[in-house]
Amino acid sequence: MKYYEFMFILRSDLEQEKKDTLIEKIKGYFSKENVEILKEDHIGVQKLAYEIKKTTTGEYFLYYLQTENSGSVKNIRKNLDIIPELLRYIFIKKEKHNIETEEVKNEKETEE
């Protein structure tokens, strides 16, 4: 089993309905490739470090994923590359215990 952290940035000036449609489209790519979403976080709107596609702010999303097929990520990347409202994305390969540690760390932060 392979685990990934997937972060992506959407244009912050999109209408909520358009954002929801894009997120569902991305989730559809995951389900088509048999990638399971373990956890998802909406980080919110942040100022970008530099201008991307003539915009200075973006809405950040973070997903923790698992799959049995490493080729799934390659296929998903091909689909993500053609979405113009998607400013940036990154897949980071993780170990299972790292994902569980992140979940525990996030829970402790919310308790404080």
TrEMBL record:
The keyword RNA-binding applies. The keyword Acetylation does not apply. SUPFAM superfamilies: Ribosomal protein S6. It comes from the Bacteria. GO terms for biological process: translation. One of its GO terms (molecular function) is structural constituent of ribosome. Coiled coil: none annotated. PANTHER family: MITOCHONDRIAL 28S RIBOSOMAL PROTEIN S6 (PTHR21011), SMALL RIBOSOMAL SUBUNIT PROTEIN BS6M (PTHR21011:SF1). Belongs to the bacterial ribosomal protein bS6 family. HAMAP family: Ribosomal_bS6 (MF_00360). This is Small ribosomal subunit protein bS6. It comes from Muiribacterium halophilum. The lineage of its organism: Bacteria, Candidatus Muiribacteriota, Candidatus Muiribacteriia, Candidatus Muiribacteriales, Candidatus Muiribacteriaceae.
